# Entry
Amino acid sequence: MDEYTPSEVFLGPLTTICPTVNYANQMTVPAGTIWGPRIIPDCQLLYVLSGQTTVRLGPQKYTLRAGNTIFYGADSPHHIEATHTDASSFVSLHFDWDCPSFDPVHPGDGICECPESALDQHPKAYVVDLYDSGKMAFPHVIEMPGLESLFIQIAREFMFGRIGYEVIVRGMLSQLLAIILRYQANEGRSPEAHRKIAPALEAVKRQLHSSWDAKELASLCGYHPAYFATLFKEATGQSPKNYLIQERIRKAKLLLLDPGSIESVAEQLGYTSLHYFCRNFKEVTGQTPSQFRKESISL
# Structure
């Protein structure tokens, strides 16, 4: 049974989470604007559109530039200062991770100033179950491309408040959180480890039909198998064997959409046993290949 410390919040499986946007806006502030030290009653994502911002989150201090995002949750002391010589622009999203109601609860009444000494307290970690990728804490600092448009869409949809906006922003926030977690699972766990095993990942991608073992993949990267296995787990959250299975089944889903026998699909992916292929497929998807194919062509 997993145990979590008081500074951790276990959110459960990603697919069961229903986030609610409590408040969202897009703003531009002059240099020297400060928020905090403070705590908030919900969670917040702060995306930097332009300028530069310094954030003290617990004992850590971060410098955020355009394209960077910071995340913190309830009762996590923080201090924010727009430090660029010119104005800085942000998108701010306040939200609850899992709330059955679509109705936003404005965080304003629950935001409290706190003493600077409170910043010595470590921020809470919010842990999500990503199934085959394991349990992962949502990152406090996010540096990944392609998020700006989605942040702006959420803020504008919320601010305009047109019919059905609550449903739309929930969907877009769910997408945003999932994209960040996917990136973190695939590349953000340890960018350095990911770089070191890149030749192995590329080989698996190009030759899914090959019966790769950890020793062969390690040799492609020039590492001892034991060290390679550690790097691989650090970078992907999986063992080389499980990673190969996941990639094969992902490809199998595409192949099963085309005409052809299930035996042929298994052979293309390097399976010498149809039984073993079907077992892997069901372990990953919860369905047999036949069930998946039947549902995929249903109207």
